[in-house]
Each structure stands twice: as C-alpha cells, then as structure tokens.
Amino acid sequence: MKKYLIASHGKFASGLKSSVQILTGKTQNITTIDAYLTDQEVDVGQKVDDFLKTIKAEDWGIIFTDLVGGSVNREVLLRTNQQSNIFVITSVNLPTVLSIMLDIAQPTKEHLQNLINEAPVQLSELDKQNINELSEDEFLL
Q: Which residues does 57 contact at the CB level (< 8 Å), separation at least 6?
C-alpha cells in the first residue's frame, strides 16, 4: 500500500490535499502537516514520526515537502534517512502530486524521477489576438 504525507509551511499541505480531492475524489492514505501556523503549535518532528509509524515493511511511504533545506524538509530527512521504502520529494507542486498519486506502478527512485520530470513548471501565455477563434479543446492545450 502506498501512503502519502504532504508536509509544508502554512496551509499549503492541506490546500494540496483539498485540490487532489476536488480533481480526483481521492484522499485515502493522504496525511498532511500544516507547519508553523501562527495560531497553532505543531511539533513537525512528532507528526512525521506518527506518519512513519503507519508505514509497514510492505508499504511505500511517499513524502512531499515544499522547500529543499527548509525546516519541514530537514525534519523529514532526519527521520527517513536509510529507509528504502520511503521516498521524499521536495519542491512539490500539484501536477507532481497528481502524477505520483495517480500512478499505479511500484515506486522506485528512477520511476518517481521520471514522473517528476513529466510535471515541470512552465511559462504559459495566451495568444489574445486569436482567443475568440480557439475552441475549448484548443484553449486547454
């Protein structure tokens, strides 16, 4: 079984989970940590430990964090180093989360890297002169 943790600063993690639910209807096996909110004390390390306790030897844990070297990322890496069934993906965005969560293959480092490479950030522009001539299908390309 694949289990997912999205951990980030502020409410980005719960926002990503909400977006996944809207787009796929799936939130099973997704845990979130919204860290460093001003109105709540969250022990990020304890929350990561709680998630890791749910990962059995036959399970796969995939953890998404926001910033390389950020405090959340460091808490995760300190606790997951040397665990072959846990993968940590950093600088996460919604296309990457969707690509990985909807994938049915067994996760490997190489396979996950391929999925990440298929969901890059890109500059997008609309040709305003031809917008009235585009069909909805062409618009979404």
A: 85
